[in-house]
Amino acid sequence: MSINKVSLRDQQSVLMMLKDCELPVIDISPEKLNNFFSYCIGSSIVGVIGLEKRGDVGLLRSLAVTESHRRQGIAGELLTFLEANAVGQGIKALYLLTESSSVFFVKFGYAKIDRDLVPASIKQTEEFCALCPDDAECMKKELNHNTG
Protein backbone atom coordinates (compact mmCIF):
# COMPACT_ATOMS: atom_id res chain seq x y z
CA MET A 1 0.00 0.00 0.00
CA SER A 2 1.14 3.51 -0.69
CA ILE A 3 -0.25 7.05 -0.78
CA ASN A 4 1.15 9.19 -3.56
CA LYS A 5 0.49 12.43 -5.36
CA VAL A 6 -1.68 11.64 -8.39
CA SER A 7 0.64 11.29 -11.37
CA LEU A 8 -0.05 12.59 -14.84
CA ARG A 9 -0.57 9.06 -16.12
CA ASP A 10 -3.11 8.29 -13.36
CA GLN A 11 -5.27 11.40 -13.79
CA GLN A 12 -7.86 9.77 -16.05
CA SER A 13 -8.17 6.74 -13.75
CA VAL A 14 -8.72 9.05 -10.77
CA LEU A 15 -11.40 11.05 -12.59
CA MET A 16 -13.19 7.83 -13.62
CA MET A 17 -13.07 6.58 -10.03
CA LEU A 18 -14.56 9.84 -8.74
CA LYS A 19 -17.33 9.64 -11.36
CA ASP A 20 -18.03 6.04 -10.35
CA CYS A 21 -18.38 7.25 -6.74
CA GLU A 22 -20.79 9.96 -7.95
CA LEU A 23 -18.52 12.85 -6.97
CA PRO A 24 -18.26 16.03 -9.04
CA VAL A 25 -15.35 16.19 -11.47
CA ILE A 26 -16.37 18.90 -13.93
CA ASP A 27 -14.17 21.52 -12.27
CA ILE A 28 -11.16 19.28 -11.61
CA SER A 29 -8.43 20.51 -13.93
CA PRO A 30 -4.99 18.91 -14.29
CA GLU A 31 -3.72 21.78 -12.09
CA LYS A 32 -6.18 20.87 -9.32
CA LEU A 33 -5.16 17.22 -9.60
CA ASN A 34 -1.70 18.31 -8.44
CA ASN A 35 -3.20 18.43 -4.94
CA PHE A 36 -4.88 15.02 -5.14
CA PHE A 37 -3.47 11.87 -3.59
CA SER A 38 -4.15 8.26 -4.45
CA TYR A 39 -4.12 5.18 -2.25
CA CYS A 40 -2.66 2.29 -4.20
CA ILE A 41 -2.58 -1.41 -3.53
CA GLY A 42 -0.03 -2.78 -5.94
CA SER A 43 -0.67 -0.92 -9.17
CA SER A 44 -4.39 -0.36 -8.49
CA ILE A 45 -5.78 2.95 -7.27
CA VAL A 46 -8.41 2.12 -4.66
CA GLY A 47 -8.79 5.50 -2.96
CA VAL A 48 -8.37 9.18 -3.62
CA ILE A 49 -8.55 12.49 -1.79
CA GLY A 50 -7.98 16.07 -2.84
CA LEU A 51 -7.21 19.46 -1.39
CA GLU A 52 -8.06 22.85 -2.81
CA LYS A 53 -5.80 25.36 -1.06
CA ARG A 54 -7.16 28.88 -0.58
CA GLY A 55 -4.63 30.93 1.36
CA ASP A 56 -4.36 29.53 4.88
CA VAL A 57 -7.56 27.45 4.59
CA GLY A 58 -8.44 24.51 2.38
CA LEU A 59 -11.38 22.70 0.87
CA LEU A 60 -11.21 18.95 1.29
CA ARG A 61 -12.21 17.45 -2.05
CA SER A 62 -13.42 14.11 -3.23
CA LEU A 63 -12.58 11.54 -0.58
CA ALA A 64 -13.48 8.29 -2.29
CA VAL A 65 -12.68 4.60 -1.91
CA THR A 66 -13.71 1.90 -4.38
CA GLU A 67 -16.66 -0.08 -3.12
CA SER A 68 -14.68 -3.32 -2.88
CA HIS A 69 -12.13 -1.69 -0.53
CA ARG A 70 -14.44 0.18 1.82
CA ARG A 71 -14.57 -0.43 5.58
CA GLN A 72 -10.86 -1.26 5.69
CA GLY A 73 -9.59 2.04 7.11
CA ILE A 74 -8.41 3.41 3.76
CA ALA A 75 -10.55 6.57 3.95
CA GLY A 76 -9.17 7.33 7.41
CA GLU A 77 -5.59 6.85 6.23
CA LEU A 78 -6.18 9.16 3.26
CA LEU A 79 -7.78 11.79 5.49
CA THR A 80 -4.95 11.67 8.03
CA PHE A 81 -2.38 11.91 5.23
CA LEU A 82 -4.15 14.89 3.65
CA GLU A 83 -4.42 16.72 6.98
CA ALA A 84 -0.67 16.31 7.60
CA ASN A 85 0.03 17.53 4.08
CA ALA A 86 -2.24 20.54 4.64
CA VAL A 87 -0.43 21.43 7.87
CA GLY A 88 2.83 21.27 5.92
CA GLN A 89 1.38 23.80 3.46
CA GLY A 90 0.44 26.19 6.29
CA ILE A 91 -3.28 25.47 6.17
CA LYS A 92 -4.99 26.28 9.48
CA ALA A 93 -8.46 24.84 8.82
CA LEU A 94 -10.14 22.45 6.41
CA TYR A 95 -13.71 22.78 5.17
CA LEU A 96 -15.82 20.27 3.31
CA LEU A 97 -19.28 19.61 1.98
CA THR A 98 -20.88 16.19 2.23
CA GLU A 99 -24.23 14.68 1.42
CA SER A 100 -23.66 11.31 3.04
CA SER A 101 -20.50 11.08 5.14
CA SER A 102 -20.88 13.50 8.04
CA VAL A 103 -20.80 10.66 10.61
CA PHE A 104 -17.43 9.55 9.24
CA PHE A 105 -15.95 13.05 9.37
CA VAL A 106 -17.20 13.68 12.93
CA LYS A 107 -15.11 10.67 14.03
CA PHE A 108 -12.04 12.54 12.74
CA GLY A 109 -12.78 15.79 14.54
CA TYR A 110 -14.84 17.66 11.95
CA ALA A 111 -17.81 19.68 13.18
CA LYS A 112 -20.91 20.76 11.32
CA ILE A 113 -21.05 24.51 10.74
CA ASP A 114 -23.37 26.96 9.07
CA ARG A 115 -22.36 27.82 5.50
CA ASP A 116 -22.42 31.51 6.44
CA LEU A 117 -19.37 30.92 8.67
CA VAL A 118 -17.18 29.67 5.81
CA PRO A 119 -14.45 32.06 4.58
CA ALA A 120 -15.17 33.85 1.29
CA SER A 121 -12.23 32.09 -0.39
CA ILE A 122 -13.92 28.71 0.19
CA LYS A 123 -17.39 29.99 -0.73
CA GLN A 124 -15.97 31.04 -4.10
CA THR A 125 -14.91 27.51 -5.10
CA GLU A 126 -16.92 25.79 -7.83
CA GLU A 127 -17.72 22.92 -5.49
CA PHE A 128 -19.13 25.26 -2.87
CA CYS A 129 -21.07 27.68 -5.04
CA ALA A 130 -22.25 25.46 -7.90
CA LEU A 131 -21.51 21.74 -7.71
CA CYS A 132 -22.74 20.63 -4.29
CA PRO A 133 -26.40 21.06 -3.43
CA ASP A 134 -27.47 23.64 -0.86
CA ASP A 135 -28.56 20.88 1.52
CA ALA A 136 -25.08 19.29 1.66
CA GLU A 137 -23.68 19.49 5.16
CA CYS A 138 -20.83 21.93 5.70
CA MET A 139 -18.07 20.86 8.09
CA LYS A 140 -14.84 22.33 9.46
CA LYS A 141 -11.75 21.15 11.30
CA GLU A 142 -9.06 23.37 12.81
CA LEU A 143 -5.68 21.80 12.12
CA ASN A 144 -3.09 21.39 14.86
CA HIS A 145 0.23 23.01 13.98
CA ASN A 146 2.04 21.96 17.17
CA THR A 147 5.11 19.89 16.41
CA GLY A 148 5.99 18.74 19.85
Overview of this protein structure:
There is one protein chain. By secondary structure, the protein is of the alpha+beta class. It has a single domain (2-142), classed as Gcn5-related N-acetyltransferase (GNAT) (Aminopeptidase, 3-Layer(aba) Sandwich). 28% of the residues lie in helices and 30% in strands. The protein is built from five helices and seven strands; from the N terminus they run βαβββαβαβααβ. A seven-stranded mixed beta sheet has the order 1-2-3-4-5-7-6, sandwiched between helices. Strand 4, helix 2 and strand 5 form a beta-alpha-beta unit. It is globular. The mean pLDDT is 86.
Name a few traits of the molecule.
148 residues, alpha+beta, Aminopeptidase
What are the SSEs and their pairings?
Layout: E1 2-5, H1 11-20, E2 36-41, E3 44-54, E4 57-65, H2 74-88, E5 93-98, H3 102-107, E6 111-112, H4 120-123, H5 126-131, E7 137-142
Parallel strand pairs: 4-5
Antiparallel strand pairs: 1-2, 2-3, 3-4, 5-7, 6-7
The separation of the N and C termini measures: 28 Å
Briefly note the CATH topology name.
Aminopeptidase
Second-tier CATH architecture: 3-Layer(aba) Sandwich
Total DSSP E strands: 7
CATH class: Alpha Beta
Estimated helix fraction: 25-40%
CA radius of gyration is: 14 Å
Q: What spatial form do the alpha-carbon principal axes imply? A: globular
Determine the mean pLDDT. 86
- For CATH, the homologous superfamily is named as Gcn5-related N-acetyltransferase (GNAT)
Q: Helix and strand succession? A: EHEEEHEHEHHE
Strand order of the largest sheet: 1-2-3-4-5-7-6
Strand content: 25-35%
Enumerate how many helices there are, as a single number. 5
- Outline the low-pLDDT stretches: none
User: Can you summarize the main beta sheet?
Assistant: 7 strands, mixed
* Category from helices, strands and their pairing: alpha+beta
